[in-house]
Amino acid sequence: MTIRINGRKVELPDDVQTIHNLLNYYDLEDRIVIVEINQQITLKEQYSSLTLSDGDIVELIHFVGGG
Amino acid sequence: MLKIADQTFNSRLLLGTGKYPSFEIQKEAVAVSGTEILTFAVRRMNIFEDSQPNFLEQLDLSKYKLLPNTAGAKTAEEAVRIARLAKASGLCDMIKVEVIGCNKSLLPDPVETLKASEMLLAEGFIVLPYTSDDVVLAKRLEELGVHAIMPGASPIGSGKGILNPMNLKFIIEQSSVPVIIDAGIGSPKDAAFAMELGADGVLLNTAVSGAKDPVKMAVAMKMAIEAGRLGYEAGRIDEKNYAVASSPLTGMVTS
């Protein structure tokens, strides 16, 4: 499936279906990360059940130094 | 004690986490500053580039109250989106509303700041808007129900210190919520001055992270804020135009 992550078009392998899979794929499961799909914020409890669809616009957000 | 909403803090220094030269220096500066509230920004993860170190992730964030900012937002709607993302981390319920209206001065957009604050209050956030030193805007924000007012001393990162102490004093005197002087602090003198004016706290970042020795400066800021606050509570003497002798004018040793 092809989705857009953080502004870039990405081709995902077939076994990446859920948000949980996606975070594993990018090795982010232990990081502080917030996932937004098509401008909808997702909750951690949904990570295993929410599946991605072709054309989804995904934002992977985190905290960085700032004032 | 600094009290914001229903939470109390021993330290009156709120410290930003941007632009430190190294993680080790940041970690030590944060520790010695005594701060209990850290600010930071919300951004896209850099998952496609070579891994850039994220100093913030290496701090034990559970030890601090987290105050994410909405930096990058130019409209109320953008600020609300960033605030919601931050809250979705499950790590914070406070938000520093920062809606920039001018790229050169980085001064906040008063209309969008007011609007964003109202929207975020309605969603149950603890709202701390970064604002200019506009006295009436501060009043309007307080009327909305914000939990603290954060007027800038001078433009962000400028280090110009307090340019309009009179306005800040007006804001401090009229406010029943905490006033935290945010942005523009350059040296410990500025931080002490802010506290002597009666501010409830000071938020700074570059003044520490950009100092030649950030760790030493973090200590200096901590001490300056404590000194300024003590001075404010102690009540300084009135200024006079002429000298008044400190030593007795009687019993002089004369020939």
From TrEMBL, chain A:
Name any one Pfam family assigned in the record: ThiS
NCBIfam families in the record: thiS
Name listed for the protein in its UniProt record:
Sulfur carrier protein ThiS
User: What PANTHER family would the database entry show?
Assistant: SULFUR CARRIER PROTEIN THIS (PTHR34472:SF1)
Task: Supply the InterPro entries for this chain.
Answer: Beta-grasp_dom_sf, Mopterin_synth/thiamin_S_b, Thi_S, ThiS/MoaD-like
This chain's source organism reads Peribacillus saganii
Automatic annotation (TrEMBL), chain B:
**Predominant location category:** cytoplasm
InterPro entries found in the cross-reference section: Aldolase_TIM (IPR013785), Thiazole_synthase_ThiG (IPR033983), ThiG (IPR008867)
Q: Does the keyword Amino-acid biosynthesis apply?
A: no
Q: Which EC number(s) are documented for this chain? A: 2.8.1.10
**Keyword Electron transport tagged:** no
GO annotation terms (biological process): thiamine diphosphate biosynthetic process
Binding positions (1-deoxy-D-xylulose 5-phosphate)? 157, 183-184, 205-206
Residues of the active site: 96
- Give its localization: Cytoplasm
**UniProt entry keywords in alphabetical sequence:** Cytoplasm, Schiff base, Thiamine biosynthesis, Transferase
**Any GO MF annotation of the entry:** thiazole synthase activity
Q: Which SUPFAM superfamilies match?
A: ThiG-like (SSF110399)
Pathway listed: Cofactor biosynthesis; thiamine diphosphate biosynthesis
What's the catalysed reaction? [ThiS sulfur-carrier protein]-C-terminal-Gly-aminoethanethioate + 2-iminoacetate + 1-deoxy-D-xylulose 5-phosphate = [ThiS sulfur-carrier protein]-C-terminal Gly-Gly + 2-[(2R,5Z)-2-carboxy-4-methylthiazol-5(2H)-ylidene]ethyl phosphate + 2 H2O + H(+)
Q: State the superkingdom.
A: Bacteria
Residue ranges of the Thiazole synthase ThiG domain?
Answer: 3-248
Complex formation: Homotetramer. Forms heterodimers with either ThiH or ThiS.
**Family affiliation:** Belongs to the ThiG family.
Name the job this protein performs: Catalyzes the rearrangement of 1-deoxy-D-xylulose 5-phosphate (DXP) to produce the thiazole phosphate moiety of thiamine. Sulfur is provided by the thiocarboxylate moiety of the carrier protein ThiS. In vitro, sulfur can be provided by H(2)S.
PANTHER family registered for this protein in UniProt: THIAZOLE SYNTHASE
What name goes with this protein?
Answer: Thiazole synthase
The organism encoding this protein is: Peribacillus saganii
Gene for this protein? thiG
